[in-house]
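Colleagues,

For the teaching module next term, I've prepared a clean inverse folding example: a structure given as tokens, and then the sequence designed for it. I'd like students to try predicting residues themselves before seeing the answer, so please don't circulate the second half yet.
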């Protein structure tokens, strides 16, 4: 009994291994669908680590769509190169139904370039709308405008390999909006005629070198922002005021310095005078001793000094004798 169970288990394992490496049901499905592929080729796919079911399904789909030029070797080579066979075949079938000229070589190149070839074909049939982020620009009158645009694009199959993506389209459209608003004489003309921005931007050929073809650019919304011109004038006025204040403080400091210098010089001169006046009595005494000054001369000097003090007193000045 045990030996029978072991034998039955071995037979089941051998059958599973056989049907794994020899996918008979998959071969029958291919034959029924009209796909010419041998059982040996399916076995060799297993050995090459290529999933036969993926290749067979792709060949059945292509055959049913009338794409009989796609061969098994091409599908295997694309799979081994790291491509997505299902997306490529879906894209070729969609392109054929939509009368889009797309070859297997072009589709595999787009797929290996990292782009979704099936989505690209869909975008060629159904254009995509891209909303730009708010674009801030300033008109010539100094008023800031905030614009939002909607860009309708269609995939350019011939430019998908090596062509720029959506980010480049958004950057170029934003640059065109800024340039258009910046060249306007005033913000009112932009608000009155927003389609002038679209026309000007479309003329620039912004889709050159990209994987898309721009069909239209529509300005969805325009808002008024800050008065940049007024803010700049205010900032300039504040800067001029600060400069004038700094210059005034500099002149005031220089005037105070000159005044202090003059006071210091006056005090020094007065100190010299006082020092000279202290030497007068000594000079008079020396003149008396040497006989150069007589008593009458001394009294005349005192009279002159008294007369000078009287005049100073009448004029309101401090008497000389009190100095």
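(Answer key — instructors only)
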């Amino acid at each position: 009994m045990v030996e029978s169970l072991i034998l039955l288990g071995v037979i089941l394992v051998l059958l599973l291994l056989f049907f794994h490496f020899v996918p008979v049901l998959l071969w029958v499905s291919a034959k029924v669908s009209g796909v010419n592929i041998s059982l040996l080729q399916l076995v060799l796919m297993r050995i090459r680590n290529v999933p036969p079911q993926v290749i067979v399904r792709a060949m059945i789909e292509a055959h049913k769509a009338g794409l009989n030029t796609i061969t098994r070797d091409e599908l295997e080579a694309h799979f081994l190169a790291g491509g997505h066979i299902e997306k490529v075949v879906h894209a070729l079938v969609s392109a054929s139904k939509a009368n889009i000229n797309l070859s297997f070589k072009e589709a595999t190149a787009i797929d290996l370039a990292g782009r979704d070839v099936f989505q690209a074909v869909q975008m060629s049939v159904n254009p995509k709308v891209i909303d730009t982020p708010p674009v801030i620009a300033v008109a010539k009158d100094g008023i800031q405008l905030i614009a939002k645009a909607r860009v309708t694009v269609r995939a350019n199959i011939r430019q998908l390999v090596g062509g720029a993506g959506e980010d480049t389209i958004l950057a170029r459209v934003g640059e065109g909006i800024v340039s258009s608003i910046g060249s306007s004489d005033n913000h009112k003309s932009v608000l009155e005629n927003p389609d002038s921005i679209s026309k000007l931007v479309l003329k620039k050929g912004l889709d050159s070198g990209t994987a898309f073809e721009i069909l239209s650019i529509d300005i969805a919304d325009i808002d008024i922002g800050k008065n940049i011109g007024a803010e700049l004038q205010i900032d300039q006025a504040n800067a001029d005021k600060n400069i004038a204040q700094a210059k005034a403080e500099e002149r005031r400091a220089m005037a105070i310095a000159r005044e202090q210098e003059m006071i210091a010089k006056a005090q020094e001169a007065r100190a010299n005078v006082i020092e000279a006046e202290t030497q007068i009595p000594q000079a008079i005494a020396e003149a008396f001793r040497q006989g150069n000054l007589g008593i009458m001369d001394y009294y005349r000097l005192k009279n002159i000094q008294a007369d000078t003090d009287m005049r100073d007193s009448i004029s309101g000045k401090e008497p000389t004798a009190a100095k």
